[in-house]
Specification:
By secondary structure, the chain is mainly α. A hairpin with a 5-residue loop joins strand 1 and strand 2. The mean pLDDT is 80.
Length: 155
């Protein structure tokens, strides 16, 4: 009988220890110290609420499953297709804008030999403008490539 009672007593004693009293003691230098035993002269007992145990949520059944939030708004197929079409139109407009910008830049760049402007008597200024035009051409070409990749991902 005492062997069966031993686990119960151990469980009860650990619960009692976990729910023990907490005292705050003020040291002579003014520091606060928290203890589970109190000295009646420099410590006072704190009234703490009991600790609640809340179980963790169940783990997902497989790592491949995607958690679905029921509060997340759902969109019907028709609405999603319309949004995709709108996105496609916006991307196509951006491609047209970038292509017209590229055509203007190429016209101005003239294969690396644009016309000198009146304020470019200094050759260094001319070279800076040519370098900026070249950089702008490359950036515009990369923008067009990225937009076309994005359009390809939509199809």
């Amino acid at each position: 009988m005492t062997i069966r009672l031993l686990p119960f007593l151990l469980l009860l004693s650990s619960f009692a220890y976990g729910q023990g009293n907490v005292y705050v003691c003020v040291q002579p230098n003014g520091n606060r110290e928290y203890r589970n035993t109190g000295d009646t002269r420099s410590c006072r007992k704190l009234d703490l609420e009991s600790i609640s145990m809340i179980p963790s949520p169940p783990s997902p059944k497989s790592s491949n499953s995607v958690a679905v939030d029921p509060a997340f708004p759902k969109v019907d197929n028709f609405t999603q297709k319309r949004r995709d079409q709108d996105r496609m139109q916006i991307l196509l407009e951006e491609v047209r804008t970038e292509e017209s910008k590229l055509a203007e830049l190429k016209k101005e760049y003239q294969n690396g030999e644009p016309e000198r402007l009146g304020n470019e008597r200094n050759y260094v200024k001319y070279q800076e403008r040519v370098g900026q035009l070249k950089d702008e051409l490359q950036r515009t070409e990369k923008n067009i490539e990225a937009l076309k990749r994005e359009i390809g991902n939509l199809k």
